[in-house]
Specification:
- The structure is a single chain.
- The chain has 50 residues and is mainly alpha-helical.
- It has helices spanning 2-26, 43-47.
- The protein is rod-shaped.
- It starts with a helix and ends with a helix.
Length: 50
């Protein structure tokens, strides 16, 4: 019986923690898009996995 209570509390804690983290990240602004954001991006590297 005690084991079920401990597991239930752990699961509840993980759910609450995830919701709090999601709430915190929703307040952060997204970075502005600039022309140099993808300056180091190499399209040839993407073609290798196809």
């Amino acid at each position: 019986m005690w084991m079920m209570i401990i597991v239930g509390l752990l699961v509840l804690g993980m759910i609450v923690g995830s919701l709090l983290l999601l709430k915190d990240t929703a307040k952060r602004p997204l970075p502005k898009v600039t022309k140099d954001n993808n300056a180091n991006y190499d399209k040839d590297e993407d073609d290798d996995w196809k």
